[in-house]
Design the sequence.
């Protein structure tokens, strides 16, 4: 056995013994040495909604195996993993949702392929968290994946053919760059606006003000026993700071807003008027939502933003499928065909495909019109339509229909004669 072959065999044995789907799903996010800004970004409603919309869209699409030449759907064992049960812990929906969230959040989604050691056919598909995987190339240019055990940190090396790798935007073709990272400036600005809004309402929704007094507040604050007050770090508290703390304790926060203030020792409170600029921070939130939606490729109407009109939303839904989902799905199809189907099946013309029609099922009118058009041009037979609707075939449904209203020009004279009684006197003009 060659060195490469021995390493691959050893890595498979180690992979099957070192980590289980239970340890991976229980790993959670890392707590040290890793930038967690991607996870905290999901506290923004626009980011979280985009992640949910994309992952749900990908997760609900069913797989099928098709012959690339005849376009016929072929029964295949791999569909048991893709459409029924990929591993002991997950449904197909959950597995695909985890992968797509990982692809957007960390730039890379990873499917660990567990194979039967005898036949080498896939028997389990386990999504691996992106922060546990490091792809790399050896000196010969072959791609490998180092996976860290989520509990012990012990590395495990897997060959390229045992990992389905789904990338976000990439510069080198080996690793993806997450949408979170590419949108980091926009997300940071939106987070700052959200923090500003939170602080605004924690202060009772009122602008800051000024407390005035004729007394000298230059000394240190003292308790009833005459001892100087100190903070937990040992710093003495000034009278000015103590006065601010006492005021905020009584009047700050939503529950304390509009309470009547009682001032003594000559204190006067002067509120600072809010400017138009301060009052317009909500508008900046709308701009942030639009920017975030652009990065993820999600139409605004799905985020309950922008104009809500049925006609434009219908077109936006189609644009979402064509421009956003189709490129993502194409990568899933290509990667799974190459690594999940045996070479003999690939040479026979089989491909793993994903049915995008499931994303458009909500638009009944457009779907019905499209089916009608495809039937009239003889592109679809009734059973083709039933298959797209996940319904059983009907007897005689494999026959395509054609209209005689439009015929080739070279056949028009004969068909015209027959339609006019076949007397041979019909005009060809």
Sequence:
């Amino acid at each position: 056995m060659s060195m490469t072959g021995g390493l691959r065999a050893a890595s498979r044995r180690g992979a099957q013994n070192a980590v289980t789907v239970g340890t991976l799903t229980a790993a959670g996010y890392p707590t040290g040495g890793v930038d967690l800004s991607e996870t905290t970004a999901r506290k923004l409603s626009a980011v979280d909604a985009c992640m949910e919309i994309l992952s749900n869209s990908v997760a609900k699409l069913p797989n099928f195996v098709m012959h690339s030449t005849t376009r016929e759907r072929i029964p295949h064992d791999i569909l048991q993993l893709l459409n029924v049960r990929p591993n002991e812990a997950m449904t197909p929906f959950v597995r695909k949702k985890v992968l797509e969230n990982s692809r957007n959040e960390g730039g890379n989604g990873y499917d660990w392929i567990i194979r039967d050691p005898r036949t080498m056919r896939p028997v389990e598909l386990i999504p691996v968290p992106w922060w546990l995987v490091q792809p790399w190339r050896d000196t010969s240019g072959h791609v490998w994946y180092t996976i860290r055990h989520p509990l012990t940190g012990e590395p495990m090396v897997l060959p390229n053919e045992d990992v389905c790798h789904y990338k976000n935007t990439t510069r080198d073709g080996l690793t993806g760059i997450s949408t979170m990272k590419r949108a980091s400036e926009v997300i940071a600005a939106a987070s700052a606006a959200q923090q500003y809004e939170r602080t605004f309402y924690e202060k009772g929704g009122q602008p800051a003000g000024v407390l005035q007094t004729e007394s000298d507040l230059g000394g240190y604050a003292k308790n009833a026993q005459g001892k100087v007050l100190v903070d937990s770090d040992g710093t003495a508290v000034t009278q000015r700071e103590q006065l601010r703390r006492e005021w905020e304790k009584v009047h700050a926060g939503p529950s304390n807003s509009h309470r009547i203030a009682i001032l003594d020792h000559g204190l006067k409170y002067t509120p600072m008027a809010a400017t138009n600029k301060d009052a317009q921070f909500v508008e900046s939130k709308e701009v942030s939502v639009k920017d975030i939606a652009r990065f993820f490729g999600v139409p605004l109407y799905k985020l309950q933003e922008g104009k809500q009109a049925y006609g434009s939303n219908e077109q936006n839904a189609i644009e979402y499928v064509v421009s956003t989902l189709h490129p993502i799905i194409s990568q899933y199809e290509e990667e799974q065909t190459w690594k999940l189907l045996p070479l003999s099946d690939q040479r026979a013309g089989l491909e793993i495909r994903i049915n995008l029609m499931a994303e458009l099922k909500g638009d009944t009118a457009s779907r019905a019109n499209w089916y009608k058009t495809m039937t009239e041009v003889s592109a679809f037979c009734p059973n083709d339509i039933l298959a797209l609707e996940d319904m059983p075939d009907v007897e005689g449904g494999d026959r395509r229909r054609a209209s005689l209203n439009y015929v080739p020009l070279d056949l028009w004279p004969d068909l015209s004669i027959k339609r006019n009684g076949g007397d041979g006197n019909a005009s060809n003009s």
In short: Residues 364-429 form one domain. The two ends are 79 Å apart (CA to CA).
